[in-house]
Amino acid sequence: YWFHRACHRYRLLWRFHAVHHTAERLDFLAAHREHPLDGLYTQAMMNLPAIALGLPVAEVMGLVAFRGLWAIFIHANVRLPLGPLGVLLGSPELHHWHHERRRDAGNYANLAPWIDRLFGTYRRPPGYPGALGIDEAHPRGYLGLLLHPFRRR
């Protein structure tokens, strides 16, 4: 939660994380639309606590696989109301609001929305957001997106 929130707050981290948010339509492919450096430091931050706690590498890799599959699920273009479970578990409908065309759209805890509720970043207006993506100008092609974070601004 905290690292994901930092990726939206701090300009240096946002430059790389914004590549993920350039998707104007969410589907399972958008889950892994990311700058390689964003993926690298995100995986490092997510896995360092497990490694520091002494989890075996095989178990850490299990966590990596689970989070990868969860990312595909929450980025899916499906309506899957979870009812009361929606307070505990993230869903594609909820995650669409995270990708609303706002850098500070909230819903940073992809798996556990109760964490967003705890820290005041939970957002779930009725329906779906009108527009997804980012307001900043950005390239459309893959190579351009890879180079974009390094451009002077």
Biggest sheet layout: none
Number of domains: 1
The average pLDDT value, as a whole number, equals: 93
| Category by helix and strand content | mainly alpha
Give helix and strand order, one letter per element, not per position: HHHHHHH
Record field, number of beta strands: 0
CA-to-CA gap between the ends?
A: 28 Å
Count helical runs: 7
Percent range of helical residues: 40-55%
Offer a concise description of the structure.
By secondary structure, the protein is mostly helical. It is built from 7 helices and no strands.
What does this 3D model show about the protein?
The chain is mainly α and 153 residues long. The protein has one domain. 48% of the residues lie in helices and 0% in strands. The chain has 7 helices and no strands. It has helices spanning 2-9, 11-21, 36-52, 57-74, 92-98, 113-119, 142-147. α3 crosses α4. The longest helix has 18 residues, at 57-74. The radius of gyration is 15 Å and the shape is globular. The two termini are 28 Å apart. The relative contact order is 0.17. The model has no long low-confidence stretch (mean pLDDT 93).
Top keywords for this entry?
153 residues; mainly alpha
Architecture blueprint of SSEs:
Blueprint: H1 2-9, H2 11-21, H3 36-52, H4 57-74, H5 92-98, H6 113-119, H7 142-147
